[in-house]
Structures are given as structure tokens and as C-alpha cells.
């Protein structure tokens, strides 16, 4: 892991001096994570791909502004967050960005395909803020402080969004057995 | 829901310090509500993990545009270490060129001048000249002797050869004379002479 970090730092340094190939190597390391984050956030593959390209282009253009190369991941996801929310605001009026909460509709044993659909639907039911908190924490493994930097809000807000999202996901994906209860 | 004594979700998400982790673990032994909370969070995370990562539909890559690429001097100018190294190299080169082109400065110390004795130098020069002359004379004598010896050797060889030729000619002449004498003795005497 340390070796990988050093390599990323080296690639960033080369990309800063105009070596596009070094930046392309950096893209191959991060494009899948960024694409999946955006795809689960905006829900459309083509949109997610377009956003991913925009994210990496903006990152390249602003690479010299990155003060600490060790924080490249958080910096990159902050750009991705901004790009995603620009699209969400464009597609939906301001008041509708926050999603509505619904009660659980899945219960009992699920097969893999059904489980995937159920998980996808459960994530879709979350508000974009809550979903993004889950994506950054559960799927991308960022710490609270890193999430606060990416999303530009206090850790307390992050915890609030995430805890609410986890409670909602629990209702869908790990419901309390009525007979046991 | 978990009880409000500990932050079970932070514990579940790995966000607690070791001391707080130990506190939660002690609490879990006595609180069924928090144990159930953690169990459900675990089930939820397992379900979330089943969602597969999507492959990127098209690879993202950028091509180098020569128009917007920095020039070589811009690259050097923007690179602090490279600029420092180049400056040091230029300074070193300038010092070396200056040292190579400037005539050397001769510093004569009075003490050294005072210690030189002209008579000793002349004597040393005379000795060296005499030594060299002796060597040259000896070489010339040797060469002359070799030339004389070679000349004498050639003269002797020629003399020997001439002597041999002369002796051979004399033998041939004697033989001819003998033949003539024998032939004249073998001629018949005329009848009138008997």
C-alpha cells in the first residue's frame, strides 16, 4: 500500500510536468472507483461516464493546485462530488434533490439477482446526500474527516447523514423478524 | 436502534479509537440491544457488498497535444531542482573556462631567488654539456669504427674475389698454353727436314 502511494505521488509529479502518459496510468488506477461512485450517485451509466471524463479532465487541469499528493483520492472525489451535484441540480429543481424516505418492502430470503436489485433499490431510495455518504464510507472506505473534506461539511453532518442512511438500509436489507420481535 | 450509552455505528464503521473500542466491547457483553444492532449492521453490509462494481464502458484516456505541451525550457524553468542544477553547472563551466583561458600568474618568492647560486648553475650546465658531448663523441666514434670495419670487410671481400678471378684466369691461360705446346709437338716433321 505504501509502495502504491509512492507510485501515485510519482505519477502525479510527472503529470504536473505535462507527461500525459503518466496521468493516463493514474486514470487507469482510479477510473473504476470514480465511475462506480458516480454511477451509483446519478443512476445513469452514460451520465456517469461523461462525468468521469469531466472529473479527470478537471483534475488534470488543476493538478498543480493539489498541495499534498497523498490526499489525491479525497481531492479527486471532491471534484467528482461537485460534478455529480452540478448534474443533479441541472436535471432536477433545487427542492427535489433531497429524496423521500419510504418504508421497507423487502423481507425474507433473497436470491443473488434479487438481492442485487434490492440493494440497488434500497440505495436509490436514499436521498442523494445520504446515498453519497454510504458510497464514500462503505464502498470507498473514506474516514469521516476525509468525507467532510470531500463534501465540504462538518463531520457531525456527515455522521448524521450516514447514520440515518444506515438505519434506512437496515430496514430494507436487514429487517427485524416480526415473529422474533 | 441501539442504546445511547455507546456509539455502536462508529464502532461498526471502524471510526473509534482503541480505548473507545474497548469500552464498546465491554458494553456489548451486557447490552443485547447493541449486539442486535451490530448484527443487523453486519447483515446490511453483507448485502451492500453483493452489489458488483460496474466496468467502465469506455476507457478514459487523454492524448498529448504538442501545442499545449510545455516547451523544454519551460519544463526546466518550472522545475526548481533542475533549475538549480543547471545554474550550478553553468557556474562550474564558467569557472573552468576562465581558469583555462587566463594566463597563469607566476609568483616568485624572494627567498627562492636569493637561494640560487649562478656559479653552481653554470657549473651544473657545464657538467651537463660535457656529459652530453662525451656521449655524442662516444656515439660518433663507435659509428666511425663500425663504418671502417664494414669498409675493410668489403675491401677484403673484393680483394679475395679479384685474387680468385686472377688465379682462375692464370690457370685457364696455362691450360691453353699447354694445349698449344702439345699440339705443336704432335705435328709430323716435314720430309725434307728429316
Please outline the major beta sheet of chain A: none
User: How confident overall, as mean pLDDT of chain B?
Assistant: 82
Helix-strand pattern of chain B: HHHHHHH
SSE order of chain A in H/E notation? HHHHHHHH
Taking all residues together, what is the mean pLDDT of chain A? 84
Largest interface pair: A-B, 44 and 32 residues
Strand elements of chain B, count: 0
Radius of gyration of chain A: 18 Å
What characterizes the major β-sheet of chain B?
none
Q: Specify Rg of chain B, calculated over alpha carbons.
A: 61 Å
Helix content of chain B: over 70%
Q: How many E-type strands of chain A? A: 0
Low-confidence stretches of chain A: 98-110
**Regarding quaternary structure, how should these chains be classified?**
heterodimer
Overview of the structural elements:
The complex is a heterodimer of chains A (181) and B (194). Chain A has helices spanning 2-16, 20-42, 45-61, 72-91, 112-125, 128-139, 144-151, 155-173. With 181 residues, chain A is mainly α. In chain A, helix 2 (20-42) runs antiparallel to helix 3, helix 3 packs across helix 4 (72-91) and helix 6 (128-139) crosses helix 8 (155-173). Chain B has helices at 8-12, 18-28, 32-49, 72-78, 80-101, 110-114, 118-186. The longest helix of chain B is centred in the C-terminal third of the chain and has 69 residues, at 118-186. The radius of gyration of chain B is 61 Å and the shape is elongated.
Name a few traits of the molecule:
heterodimer, A: about 180 residues, mainly alpha, B: about 190 residues, 7 helices, about 70% helix
Write the layout of secondary structure elements.
The complex is a heterodimer of chains A (181) and B (194).
Chain A: H1 2-16, H2 20-42, H3 45-61, H4 72-91, H5 112-125, H6 128-139, H7 144-151, H8 155-173
Helix pairs in contact in A: 1-2, 2-3, 2-4, 2-6, 3-4, 4-7, 5-8, 6-8, 7-8
Chain B: H1 8-12, H2 18-28, H3 32-49, H4 72-78, H5 80-101, H6 110-114, H7 118-186
Amino acid at each position: 500500500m505504501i509502495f502504491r502511494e509512492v507510485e501515485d505521488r510519482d505519477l502525479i509529479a510527472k503529470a504536473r510536468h505535462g507527461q500525459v502518459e503518466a496521468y493516463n496510468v493514474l486514470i487507469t488506477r482510479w477510473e473504476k472507483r470514480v465511475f462506480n461512485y458516480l454511477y451509483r450517485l446519478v443512476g445513469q451509466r452514460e451520465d456517469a461516464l461523461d462525468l468521469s471524463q469531466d472529473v479527470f479532465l478537471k483534475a488534470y487541469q488543476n493538478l498543480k493546485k493539489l498541495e499534498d499528493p497523498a490526499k489525491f483520492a479525497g481531492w479527486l472525489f471532491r471534484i467528482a462530488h461537485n460534478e455529480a451535484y452540478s448534474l443533479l441540480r441541472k436535471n432536477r429543481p433545487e427542492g427535489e434533490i433531497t429524496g423521500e424516505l419510504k418504508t421497507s418492502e423487502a423481507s425474507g430470503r433473497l436470491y443473488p439477482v434479487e438481492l442485487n436489485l434490492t440493494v440497488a433499490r434500497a440505495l436509490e431510495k436514499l436521498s442523494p446526500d445520504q446515498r453519497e455518504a454510504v458510497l464514500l464510507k462503505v464502498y470507498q472506505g473514506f474516514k469521516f474527516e476525509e468525507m467532510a473534506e470531500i463534501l465540504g461539511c462538518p463531520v457531525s453532518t456527515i455522521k448524521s447523514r450516514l447514520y440515518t442512511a444506515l438505519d434506512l438500509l437496515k430496514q430494507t436489507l436487514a429487517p427485524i423478524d416480526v415473529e422474533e420481535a | 436502534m441501539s442504546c445511547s450509552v455507546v456509539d455502536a455505528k462508529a464502532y461498526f464503521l471502524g471510526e473509534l479509537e482503541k480505548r473507545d473500542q474497548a469500552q464498546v466491547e465491554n458494553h456489548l457483553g451486557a447490552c443485547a440491544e447493541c449486539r442486535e444492532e451490530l448484527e443487523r449492521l453486519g447483515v446490511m453490509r453483507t448485502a451492500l457488498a453483493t452489489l458488483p462494481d460496474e466496468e467502465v464502458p469506455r476507457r478514459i484516456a487523454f492524448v498529448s497535444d504538442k501545442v499545449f505541451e510545455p516547451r523544454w525550457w519551460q519544463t526546466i524553468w518550472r522545475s526548481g531542482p533542475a533549475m538549480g542544477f543547471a545554474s550550478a553547472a553553468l557556474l562550474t563551466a564558467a569557472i573552468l573556462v576562465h581558469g583555462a583561458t587566463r594566463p597563469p600568474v607566476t609568483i616568485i618568492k624572494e627567498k627562492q631567488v636569493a637561494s640560487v647560486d649562478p656559479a653552481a648553475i653554470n657549473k651544473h650546465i657545464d657538467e651537463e654539456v660535457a656529459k652530453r658531448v662525451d656521449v655524442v663523441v662516444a656515439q660518433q666514434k663507435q659509428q666511425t669504427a663500425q663504418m671502417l670495419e664494414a669498409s675493410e670487410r668489403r675491401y677484403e671481400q673484393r680483394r679475395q674475389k679479384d685474387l680468385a678471378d686472377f688465379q682462375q684466369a692464370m690457370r685457364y691461360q696455362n691450360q691453353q698454353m699447354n694445349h698449344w705446346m702439345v699440339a705443336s709437338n704432335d705435328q709430323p716433321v716435314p720430309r725434307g727436314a728429316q
